Amino acid sequence: MRTEDDQPETNSADSADQPQTRRAMLQIGALAAAAVVPIRPAMAQVITSALTCSIPVPQSSQAGKWIKNNGEVVNANTANSFAPPPQPLKGEDVKNSLKFGTNYPTYNTARSTAYNNYIKKLTIGKQGYTCYASLKDVSRW
To answer: Is the pLDDT of residue 141 over 50?
Structure first.
């Protein structure tokens, strides 16, 4: 004769939660799959905008200043410094120079390195920082 003590224990909370847990997992999977479609065009847009942005060297508030080989902004004609480029540097050229070590078009290695050192020192609030930050994100992809 069986008593209540002989009955196998069942946790009614566990068995009741299983269908809810499965349903929740299926819903999460469906949401994740739906999110994949919009992300790809967004990534393409970010990459395109990053490569078409530009970085002034130096920023416009420092017009007339030159860039020292270590990336500091100095007075014109300071030793070991270079005149700024006449136009802001293009995002694609910056990405290639920073990632692959290429020189900027028409500039030698020393000048390209000085400009890269300046760009690496950009901080939030300075002209060109947003472009530089987006280029760093693009290079991770």
So the answer is: no
Domain boundaries, the chain: 60-140
Which amino acid is residue 2, in one-letter code? Answer: R
**What pTM was estimated for this model as a whole?**
0.65
Q: Estimate the crossing angle of helix 129-140 against helix 12-52, to 10 degrees.
A: 120
Which secondary-structure segment (H or E) carries 4?
none
In the DSSP assignment, the letter for residue 83 is P
Q: What is the pLDDT of residues 26-49, one digit of tens each?
A: 667 666 655 555 555 555 555 555
**How far is Cα 17 from Cα 20, in angstroms, rounded to an integer?**
5
Q: What angle do CA 100, 104, 107 make, to 5 degrees?
A: 130
Alpha carbon 40 to its chain centroid, in Å, reads 16
